[in-house]
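User: Modeling request: complex.
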Amino acid sequence: MKPFFKYFTDIFHAVTSLLTGMKVTGRYFFSPGEIVTQQYPENRDTLKMFDRFKGEVIMVHNAQNQHRCTGCGICETNCPNGSIEVIQDKTETPDGKKKRILGKYVYHLGMCTFCGLCIKSCPSNALAWGQEFEHAVFDRSKLTKILNQPGSSIIKDIIE
Amino acid sequence: MKEVVNLPVKNIEEEEYHINMGPQHPSTHGVLRLVVSLQGEIVKSLKPHCGYIHRGIEKMCEKDTYPQIIHLTDRMDYLSAHINNHAVCLLVEKALEVDVPERVKYIRTIIDELNRIASHQLWWCSFGMDMGGLTCFFYGLRDREKILDIFEESFGSRLLHSYYTPGGLMMDIHPNFQKGVKAFIHYFRKKIKDYDDILTGNIIMQERTKGIGVLSREDAISYGVTGPSGRASGFSCDVRKRHPYALYDKVDFNEILGTEGDTFTRYMMRMYEMRESMNIIEQLIDNIPPGDTSAKMKAVIKLPAGEYYQRVEAARGELGVYVVSDGNKTPYRVKFRSPNFSNLSALDHISRGVKIADLVAIGGSLDYVIPDIDR
Amino acid sequence: MNFSIYDFTSFNQWTDTFLREHLGPFWAVAVEMVIIGLAILLFYALVGLFLVYAERKVCAFMQNRVGPNRVGPYGFFQTIADFIKLMLKELITIKNADQFLFNLAPFIVIIASFMAIAAIPFAKGLHAIDFDIGVLYVIAVSSLGVVGILLAGWSSNNKYSLIGAMRSGAQIVSYELSVGLSLLTIIILAGTMQFSAIVEGQANGWFIFKGHIPAFLAFVLFLISSTAETNRGPFDLAEAESELTAGFHTEYSGIKFAFFFLAEYMNMFIVASIAATVFLGGWMPFHVGGWAGFNHIMDFIPPFLWYIGKTFFVIWIMMWFKWTFPRLRIDQLLTLEWKYLLPINLVNILLMAFIVLMGWHF
Amino acid sequence: MLELVPDAEFQENKQFLTCIIPPAKLHALAVRLAGDADLAFDFLFCLSGVDMIQYIEVVYHLESTAHRHQAVLKVRVFDRDHGAVDTVCDIWRTAEFHEREIYDLLGIRFTNHPDLRRIFLEEEWIGHPLRKDYADEINIVER
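Assistant: Request completed. Predicted assembly structure:
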């Protein structure tokens, strides 16, 4: 007689377990307030990334188009992937001495792994994370960026 | 006219049927190729072929300095990136005999456990999908998103954080971190009931997993199956208990051991572990002491010549880092003992004689991450 | 001439006499067949497209998503866009595949589901053919589809496809029994196999209420076994995507794949309409004994809408199954049929026969 | 251990008891280490190969799950082209994959291994990438 009852209790347990599962999906079906989907291109105006979001490496420029990079190249040695190339330039200070300044700061976004070692190691805090994340381009060469803006110069009070 | 070929008469009963599962297959969770010999629906044997995403991380490490290695470890088991980072950081700290501040230990422990929960959530949803319950996939991802948002707010990225550095942390946690974690735990304690309702208790799921893919304790040790999969077989392999690091010797948590060693026990281990991780976080989250976020480290880190080994408990098992240093700023040789690599080696053993559908379930319960196997 | 949306019989007779007067009997029948064929084709396409959309929306809501919402309002034209895309896609020819069978298979599948639609009464007088063995005809025709699936799996020259097709064969052969037996339970109650008569028999109450517990049990059994027969989750072993990539239609592309896809949804529609017709009163409105006012209001809703509403309710339940449960294993699938569904069904028939014999039903 | 392998050489290591043994004695010692009730090293948690230029070292990290002690065995192979070590995958099954990995990346053969094929790289690959003298102009960029 025992297997006979077991047959029915098995069916009962099976059906209740299935109904428990159906209760969950059924509940979500009737509660559209729980929908978590974000309508991405539509919410672009309101979409704000977190301050620390690692979108890309940028060089901070102030209102006078000045940056803080001295062109020392520490970031370049710290980068594990070779995605930074600092091309140095020489300039003459008013008192006639030769001084190293930044010529071009080349940043290969396509090679960057966003480890943050360049930003951490920079002695003059010239670099920061940008929050831009829509990096898709049609041509790979567009991923190579020059971070110092044209005509920019170094802030005067930065000393090495 | 087609040519009539007289095929040699074979005994059909004995003939095996080989199928290639992968490299592109929905249930291999990446590019793993399993050559499965079938007899009807029954798996006779299988041969894993890995290496489709072998990137030579160990070779690359030989060229990089210690802080640079960190970001490579992210890319091994990308689902427990923080824990991988932790292994290298601990190794460097041990070699240099640096004491990291208490605050760093607290934060690292909390984040490791968060990472473990996130990893198990992704495992849960992909396991559900392997079983054919597609809805699980979205519930798991929905809840994992909450952790990733916390990560993104504090560390700037969602998956590959590179947050730990030798000696400390890249930066301090975000002021909202504690609030966010507490809100998440409150949220997830409710939502984990959905997991149980929809999959754990489900009769179909139980019937499909109980008694399938049994791995005995001896085999688990012999195959080096660690993590939740090893503990399901009763192999007490939790590195957090055996060789405590960070704060694991101070917090109160249980190492849950299974006895059956089947797919269902492996499943339950991870479900328990998610709850256990939440307990650990709750013990620590309110007590993070103030202090520095990094110990004093030299600008160029050079390990004294010698050999170092550090083990941590990653989400999928024991992760070991073996470094041979010759005193330079780059390691001489780095070897990662990745948990999935050893776990995969047991797949052939435990999936003999099961059906294809079970093979998928077993694979899901071993929870392999292919980049970690290939490295 | 008194046309109404409640009764199509007079409309049909009027059309028939009109055509016969003007064209003669042979051409009248030919024109009628063409009209019916086109109507069903159009209906088929519309329902198929809508069901795909409905499935995606239902599963999205169950999964906390919004589902398709880009093409048209609420993504309503998404499936049309998908269909156009599938039509324009390249038909990949498989090397070493049996080309003839490979091309034939999708047509068999779709024709089988097409034929089954003919016997279903959508409203009073609105059906293509009213057989006196309608139920038998539908069961017979709807199981033809498995031939197409087997052919598709065999001719693709793909191991996954073959495994999927063989699973499907085993599955449909065994679940056909349960479908038949659970319908038989109601046929005992109705005393006829003619669909129109079955529906008429439910004028004073749906069979699911009239037949006490056995009828309800038969409804549940029919739901389970018909879900299995249409190869839908949790019984979608033939195309189990996590095991067999896409099962029997792995190698199909473009419009041939669309045929399989449409046929799957149409099969679901057909079994749902049978469930609605046999168990839930077909196009009969919902009446509660004694509530004359309520019943009067219910009569105002056109029977066609009643029928569609019931059908979609059954379809929704089947979608609910699919998006909740994990998939069964092949041996469990057969265990479920032979150890549980079949014995219960047999006992159920006995019970029903007893009830009918004693006249205990309403 | 000394009585079993008299020519074993112990190495200074802060973390583990390290012992360098000749390749010929490895298998016998491994059987003993795994089988002996007092030692019971049943868990091979890491198996790695290191190219030391003069020789290639195979490192076995062992742990006993019962007694919680750990030890390291090292085998030095001096023959770079045809160097071979006895397999231990009959004792610790996990070694099967790890030995294939070492064979693949460092080129040490393991005798009696049931299925010694390359594990990550394709069969046609020339060279063993983790060796220090491995050169690949295309894929390895020196900085």
